[in-house]
Amino acid sequence: MDFTYDDEQQALREAVRGLLATTYADHDRRRRTVAEDPGFDRDLWGRLAEMGILGLPFSEDHGGVGAGPVEIAIVCQELGRVLAPEPFLAGVVHAGGLVAALGSPEQKADLLGRLSAGEIVLAVADTCPGGRWAAQADGVRASVSDATWTLDGVADPVVGGDAADVLIVTAALPDDAGTGVFVVAAADVVRTGYAAADLTRAASVRFDGSAATPLGEPGRDLTPSIATISDLTRIMGANQALGVMQSQVRATTDYLKSRKQFGVTLNTFQSLTFRAADMYVSLELAHSMVDFATMTIGGGDREAVADAADRVGLQIARAGRHIGQEAIQLHGGIAMTAEYAVGVGTAHLEVLDQWLGNGHHHLSRLAGRVTDHDLVEALS
Amino acid sequence: MQLELTPSDAAFRDRMREAFTTLVPQEIRDTVLEGRHLTRDQIVESQRALNAEGLAVPHWPSEWGGQDWTDLQRHLWHEEMQRAGVPIPLAFNASMIGPVIAQFGTEEQKKRFLPDTANLDIWWSQGFSEPDAGSDLASLRTSAVRDGDDWVVNGQKTWTTLGQHGDWIFTLVRTDPEVKKQAGISMLLIDMTTPGVEVRPIELIDGGHEVNEVWFSDVRVPGDLLVGDTGEGWTIAKFLLGNERVGVAPVGATKRALATVKADAGELMDDPIVRARVAELENDLLALELTALRVVAHSSDGAPHPASSVLKLRGTELQQAVSELALDLAGPGSLGARAGDDSPLAGWARRSAPTYLNLRKASIYGGSNEIQRQIISRTILGL
Fold first, then answer.
1. How many CB atoms lie within 10 A of CB A355?
2. How far is CA B250 from CA B4, B255, B340, in A?
3. Of the candidates B269, B288, B372, which has its C-beta nearest A371's C-beta?
4. Total-model pTM
5. DSSP state of B295
């Protein structure tokens, strides 16, 4: 049992942190980036590709690096620290994850190769308006005629969908045969982009007889694999949220030490320092659970990963509400402004949770299983 | 990063699990698991059984019965013990005065006290808190005045847990009223049968007799019972209160308590609100346990890991939260708190209110949770 990074992982973290600092050293740069299309920094995306980050999860046969979950988690944490809007989680972890899990060798070589090289951006369309984290598709329907597949319906929100070149779409198969996954060119859909509360981009995507290529074997129900990739993405999203919260706790303590009111710095008020201490408690507990969930992926047990995704989803939701709210409150009015990173971080935490699975959702799932065990084991 | 225990640590855990479920009588373990009170004899019997196998004081120096285990091994020892319902070796002996004597005591004191302390042949009590010295311990007033080779002690200690069973008491006393308050404190070991020592019970809100006042009236203490130098008491007290990295939070016991609540709840577990409360607590406990593992896996000899305060703070909150859940599930059955054992009300329900009330202490003793917040905000966050 070991909760530390090895030397190479440490070096990866320093390298990613260093690269991100060249672009997002201050929040103003992030503000300007999200205000313009495509909502992230193409130059930075290219440099992430050069560094091998965009191919991190994929095998070397497909242009990737073949790194493990800990390395991907490190990247997500670093992106979270600076609220980077680059679609790594949506495009590489989630969309790339579906291609890597389900695609044919040719599809993997093509899509993952170009994704890793930074030549294309992917996004997942798996949620219909009003949908709530279901692996089964019900907003988009697939049809087949003479082995030619088309899709109809609406997916919304599609995170990162406005700038994506290729969409990975979950769709209901004909004859209630389950849910399939399809590759659709962005040119074959109608989409309307918009910004979420944290100013990262999403889109409403309409499929109207859109040409689609099944990912992997046509017509097969892929619901379990879709769920597993969502679980992996949930865990990596928790890593990203952890990075956000680390920055928020640091910013809050720095602020309490420097901001003066009534002629003294705010850290002279115990009513504030005790609340900062409680934020630290939430942060450390969440950190432990995030590391646990990340390490669970390495074990390769699908059910264990699903359980860990629920556990970390609940923990990070609770911590995110606590830290995100207190970070604003302890700063006061300044954190209500869009030019200050702390409040935007709170928005980002909410977007991550509502996109990937919020506390209510994960608690509901855990509560459903609560009598299946005597007690919860941390160590197997 | 790796979640699994190494094969040798996994084997160690299996060895502990085997030992704890075989060495200590089932009746004692059931008493712990059901949250009933242990007798003095049961506590002594259990600790002696552990000590015979080298499992009572593994963290002591090896020449006095320690095992030179890693912090992770000690964590596993502690968790498995709680899981099996084995009473934790008496903290006053095993965690407090034993390590102090081993660190600060003379060779004579070590020989005289350590073997008997490990084996619970001596039952130690703690004489630190006073009516006007709680969290502000350094303002204590119990005095020790030199008279020839002896010290003469006068004053009052309070919150002396299980002092009614005590053979000896380790005390912080003021030996020099003239200097800065921390510098005037020394540690004296006092035989509780000495004339002038009086133990008076304090009745608590749970109806139990767990703590006491201890009064000292011209109590004569031989000079060789001073631990360390005169004026070194504060340093010793900080060592005693701060040298723990393992077992700061009662993780295993609280997990066990929650599992027991689930089993006792019966069909109440069909209520979705109950299920959600249990699921949330289980998740909180998992996060706490993982944090405890992070602390023990990272700590090296020396300073305690700063996250120890997180463990104490959160661990006691969760311990209390589980007791609240049990009380809510007991409902009207909890009114039988002082009904006899022949009551038709379930035992767990009858115990739930006293347990809930009793556990309010957890966030007060051992450095109140406000003190822990102070440690976090100052030491960790630099505020």
1. 21
2. 22, 9, 29
3. B269
4. 0.95
5. H
